[in-house]
């Protein structure tokens, strides 16, 4: 897809400074839509969750969802924002088939929350991301492009629209530009979205499943020559739908823009699309025309004026936020700040916490999530939380290892089974026959065969070179395909070779 | 957005721009005609500006109400047949619309 010239990442940093910015859309987990009573259930049959209001039929009137407004204020409070005492909805006018009214009900110059911040940590360093605004709007319908070979717009001869999603409450969180992150800019962008996601989860305002589109990121990136007083022209990359992609998209845009600037050309201010498969971006809709939205205050909705009493009621009811929670968990689990940072960067804090809650020890839970599971997520190119295994299943797996039913090697095979959808760990162990062998006839035979097959080694052990026994243990493990317990095998070998 | 003309008089270019945003195809003759007609409408509305409102606070609503909200309760939606009956064209239980122009992906 990409024919762009790219500059080496480390090399570009010797000449250019990046500035990043993020616009994050969060679909709230309310039961009903923003301005009408239609259900918001994901995955319903097309166009079964619509009504005159969300279809924009003449004469219909919106009514604001109280839970959505409270959720927005709570997000603002969690991000240290100022909560407006006077806020209004506005019409954002544009023609596109996914917006049946001809405008999106959004907020313009009077958003619910402004001027907050979120501190994120990358490699032990804190970066403050300033929040410009948090506002409330409605989601759009879903277009399906028909006729093109790939389902994309290009080559499609018509489109099909499902309005189930139109009108679902959507919160937009906009950062101020973040300069000064240098080489860490891609990771700061990812850390910001990771931390924001944790906060939204803690608040319980959204499912925040990126693969279902509950959380969608537009990532702005620009480059300027090092030391320049002015920032460069930014591009806005859309369709960035995983934490990993947030980081990759910034890295790609930095490398692409560096090549453009090196060639003496100008970066075009435009919307670009991110491609998961290649990790590249390509130009999208030109921004020139699209920005003329002719906003005006929504006449069908009265202003929202949160008074102090209402805001305080929401503030005192906020849950423990992730930053404070991490400090507490770090102490409870007895780990260092660095070890905690690893968990945060891997997006594993809540997964480990849930695994511990399901009965595993903190050490075991960390070992599996940061070890085998992190490796598999990386191989599959997904985020840890999107693996097809739940914290409860990981805890069950750990329990089977602790009980001696399986060892670590067998547990990895059980993991394969769980990830392949074969069921819970105990069921997979049963179905695949993975349990560790006891001191069975089969094992006795394997031990005897190892001694017979390696007379030289056996002689060394008999002669007092006890460490040589490892080779015999290895031989038994090989014949039993890892199903034997190494400690048991070692004891059985010693009984036969070492006179007490 | 194109810049407003001096004295706030609506120009033909502005009408062309608005027509494009509204996805309306207008001929050159129509643009001239509408520019004149719309300018007359704006002039008529502008007479409101003559009113003395020095001690009247700006408002967007006729009634001084705030925080009108509904509880977050899901209610039945329209039957899909009824919904799609209002569509100019439907296919696979969805609204069928012409190819979307001006975008590549």
Write the layout of secondary structure elements.
The complex is a heterodimer of chains A (500) and B (105).
Chain A: H1 9-12, E1 16-27, E2 64-65, H2 66-78, E3 82-83, E4 90-93, E5 103-106, E6 113-122, E7 125-138, E8 142-146, E9 158-162, E10 169-175, H3 185-203, E11 215-225, E12 235-240, H4 243-262, E13 271-275, E14 280-283, H5 287-290, E15 296-297, H6 308-316, H7 322-333, H8 337-345, H9 349-357, H10 362-380, H11 391-402, H12 408-419, H13 425-432, H14 441-453, H15 455-462, H16 469-479, H17 486-497
Parallel strand pairs in A: 12-13
Antiparallel strand pairs in A: 1-10, 1-11, 3-6, 4-5, 4-15, 6-7, 7-10, 8-9, 11-12, 13-14
Helix pairs in contact in A: 3-4, 9-10, 9-11, 11-12, 12-13, 14-16, 16-17
Chain B: H1 12-21, H2 28-46, E1 69-70, H3 80-85, E2 90-91, E3 94-98
Antiparallel strand pairs in B: 2-3
Description:
The complex is a heterodimer of chains A (500) and B (105). In chain A, 39% of the residues lie in helices and 19% in strands. Chain A has 500 residues and is α+β, with helices and mostly antiparallel strands. Chain A has 3 domains: 9-313, no CATH class; 320-432, no CATH class; 441-497, Arc Repressor Mutant, subunit A. A 9-stranded mixed β-sheet of chain A has the order 3-6-7-10-1-11-12-13-14. Chain A is elongated. The mean pLDDT of chain A is 88. In chain B, 33% of the residues lie in helices and 9% in strands. Chain B is built from 3 helices and 3 strands, in the order H-H-E-H-E-E. Chain B has helices at residues 12-21, 28-46, 80-85, and strands spanning 69-70, 90-91, 94-98. Classes of the chains: A alpha+beta (500), B alpha+beta (105). Chains A and B meet through strand 2, helix 2, strand 8 and strand 9 of A and helix 1, strand 1, helix 3 and strand 3 of B. Strand 9 of chain A pairs antiparallel with strand 3 of chain B.
